[in-house]
Amino acid sequence: MAENIKFFYFNHLFPPVHYLQIVIPKGSLSEPVEKKGIMEILSENLFIYSKKYKEELKPIFDRLGANFDISVSEEATLITLKVIKENFEKALSILLDFLHYPAFKEKNLKSSKKQAIGNLKISLTDPQIVSEMHLFDFVFGKENPLGKSQTPKTTKNIKLKDLISQYERLKDTRNWGIFISSPEEEGKIKEKIFRTLSKYELKNLDLFELKEVKLELKPKVRIIPKKDMTQVSINLLIPAFPRTSIDYIPLKTSFYSLAEGGFSSRILREIRVEMSSTYGVLGSYDAFKDIGYLQISGMVKNNDFQKTVEIIEKLYKEWKNEGINVEELEEAKQFYLNSFKTIKDDPLEWGSFLLKNHIQDLPENYYEILIERIKNLRLEDIKEVNKKLLEEIPFWVFLGEEKIIKPVAEMVGEFEIKSYYDI
Amino acid sequence: MIKIENFELKNGLKVFYLYNPQSLISFLQVWYHFGSAQEEKEKNGIAHLIEHLFFKGTDKIKETEFSRIIQKEGGSCNAFTSEEKICFYETIPSEKLEMIIKMEADRMENLKITEENFEKERKVVLEEYKERIQNQPIVKPLIEVRKEVFGDHPFSRDPAGCEETINNIKFEDVLRYYKDFFHPKNCTLIIVSSKEIDGGKEIIEKNFGIIEKEGKIPSPIPPLLKPSKEYVEKKIPLKATIFSKTFFLPKKEAFYFPLNLLHNLIGGDEDSILKREIQEKKFYVLQTGTFPFFSNSGTLFLFFTLNLPFVKKYNFLKTIDDLLKNKIREVLNKEKFEELKGRLAISLLSSLNSTEKIGLYFADCIISRGNPEYFFKDYETIKNLNIEEVFETLEVLRNSSFCEVLLKGSIWQKT
User: Cα–Cα distances in Å, from B276 out to B246, B287, B317?
Assistant: First the structure.
């Protein structure tokens, strides 16, 4: 098993704890759409019981001075082990036993499903969360793992046998990555890890194929009427480049000046600082191995809604056609270059960065490449990449009072109306 | 390796400095000892509004530039307002520590508040209130519940304020509050850095030491000893019904770890008693748990369940009584106690994985618990915790005043 796995090391002195992260390249994008949420439920049920131990994992770890957590992103599942120095090998071995020989129980599954449904019931009262769910449904459609959100219905669909078959997909050790941050030197700790891993013989299973992600151009706007709203929730999406694309770094740098850079971004300065129409309208660039998109979202004052939409459209067009200026480029470059000091200050954040590069098949020296490319970026590079984006913002979602959002939707383009819970 | 030093400048600024040679960055926190519980009632929200105005610049730093300068260096900054404090915090590469100390000292003394930027920021604060409270169907009734539970105690007011009180605030009020409460004597500076203490001390003296601004010390917040009502009921637009019971305990350091341990045992973890006995067994209970809340004014310990909407009557309150009286004593044997101590100890130790997290924990020891030495002592305190201390705390909890809240949901939600 060990030879299939990519290994990363980091040294820290304090605290006297080992941090080990295992990344498995299966995340929520690998879920069947009718059982959305299964990876989260699986992660909660994975480390409770094992076929090899009579006891649950938590009390065993309590006695060893160890704990763990598990998180699921779109592309990966990340398991983190934290353990005091002297019990590292023992804790890792037990964690791997639980990972390889889990025993799933109906009562735990039921309880996790109820917990998830409770969380969803609360989340669905938040207009911004619902507006974002509508955006992905609108853009990608309910048949696509990116378009379909977890709902109480998809959660109820998850049965014990589904959990087991989803678990089988995790066991494929191809492309696993391990990051260790340790007070011990690399050679010693690596030997301990590989000695423990060598006890596990695992087959390579067929990879679960990601469903093809297609962007269908539909109406430009979706509106969701909601009564008694004193603001409008705006969400928009622009298709962009995956993280593996050569255009990713120029676009990431450039988008900082439009929407991702907080008070350094044109949109926030205009809508919050100049107009006082919002607490925050902010951007994010989500980039995976095969797909990427820019997203801008926020809540704005009812009275200023139309003006806000016009400003976002105008700022997008200017930015897309003319790029950014020399001061903005320098500001964005400095931010990204210097931010690695903060990332490296937290071994777990640094580990997540390295493991993300690994599962996206980026080169081993991607960090160095990234730094070099940001340093050498020129205004012309940015202009060229911005030009590749769509001429106009193709997908908008407005959620708010119908009499406020409908006239603006008519102004923006063809639109459709959906009800609040139709996701 | 790690060293701590605390000192007070001549102008009254209290400084706590943690030197960590392993840090790649510095983390700085400026705590003003003034929060929403010390505001005039009709100007509720003024502390939060002033927090916003701190980013409006000075003669040296233009509006919006504060955040941009820090981001350019790869750092980040933010702030929050609670009932008791306002905190501004920044992460920054250590070679830029002096720059950020200079900027914080500058805005303590020279904040540029004009009528124009005050009016603009009031509008932004109102939008924040709408986004976080007014347009959140669950949060809005909770603010009403809070008013009823705390009654005349200033904790009844949310730090965000409300539309009416935010609109009551005048330009002159902001100037007066800034002058009165934002000065060295009413402030604590906390720094975690890889810069040696002597070097850091010199920079602090140079920049904060020259501030002559004097002001008032806000009146103390009355202790939070009991609720205003024992029972509160409200309707909520949610397809679920929520029950809660909150116990009011005095502030006491001796409760800190026993209550955290009881939280893990009763409702904080996946293997806790409430999750196993209630959530797993009763089909109508979706979620259940506990929350401890520690403040300088008092300690709260809350039990809750989230249930299917048709559940109108339910013996959750009886379950809590039984739990506190019998069940905990049955479950908490010596072996279980040692396991839970181990869980608290490793959670504490392993959470210190970055300069920012070290800084937040260090600040909690100083600001909420009143002693920086806890940073070094807590691990041993947990190891030496005695089961009798937990049972004593349990008895205090069981005999404390409480408030029960019923939030009645509906089968259908209005959109």
Answer: 21, 11, 17
If we measure between CA atoms, which residue out of A224, A223, A235, A360 comes closest to residue A291?
A360
Residue among A111, A125, A269 minimizing CB distance to B279? A111
| Chain B nearest CA to A278, separation (Å) | 6
Note whether B354 contacts A261, CB cutoff 8 Å. Answer: no
> Cα dihedral sign for A252, A257, A260, A262?
positive
Of the partner residues A263, A272, A339, the one whose CB lies closest to the CB of residue B124: A272
Q: Which of B320, B297, B319 is nearest to B248 (CA)?
A: B297
Chain B contact present for A11, CB below 8 A? no
> Looking at per-residue confidence, does B312 or A386 come out higher?
A386
DSSP letter string, A33-62:
GGGTTHHHHHHHHHTT-BTTBSS-HHHHHH
pLDDT reported for residue A214: 54
Write the residue in B74, B93, B136 that is nearest to A126 by C-beta. Answer: B136
Residues in chain B: 415
Convert B204-236 into a string of H (helix), E (strand) and C (coil): HHHHHCCCCCCCCCCCCCCCCCCCCCCEEEEEC
Computed over its alpha carbons, how large is the radius of gyration of chain B? 23
Q: For residue A56, what pLDDT is reported?
A: 95
Most B-contacting residue of A334, A345, A370 (CB-CB within 10 A), to test interface: A345
Q: What's the whole-number average pLDDT of chain A?
A: 92
A269 close contact with B: CB closer than 8 A: yes
Phi, psi of A281 (to 5 degrees): -120, 110
Q: In chain B, what residues touch A226 (CB-CB under 8 Å)?
A: 415
The predicted structure's pLDDT at residue B94: 94
- The pTM for the full model equals 0.95
Which residues, 6 or more positions from B32, have their beta carbon under 8 angstroms from its beta carbon?
Answer: B85, B86, B87, B181, B182, B186, B187
* Cβ pairs bridging A and B (under 8 Å): 196
Distance from CA of A226 to the nearest CA of B (A): 5
| Among candidates A63, A226, A342 on the partner chain, residue whose Cβ is nearest the Cβ of B415 | A226
Which residue in A has a C-alpha nearest to residue B343's C-alpha? A62
Please provide residue B300's backbone torsions phi and psi, each rounded to the nearest 5 degrees: -120, 145
Q: What is the token pair recorded at A130?
A: 């619902």
ipTM over 0.90: yes
Tell me whether residues A231 and B127 touch, CB distance under 8 A: yes
pLDDT classification of A331: cutoffs 50, 70, 90:
very high
Question: SS3 helix, strand, coil % of chain A, rounded to 5?
Answer: 50, 20, 30
Mean pLDDT of B40-53: 98
**pLDDT tens digit string along B228-272?**
999 999 988 888 899 999 999 999 999 999 999 999 999 999 899
Q: Does A64 touch chain B (CB under 8 A)?
A: yes
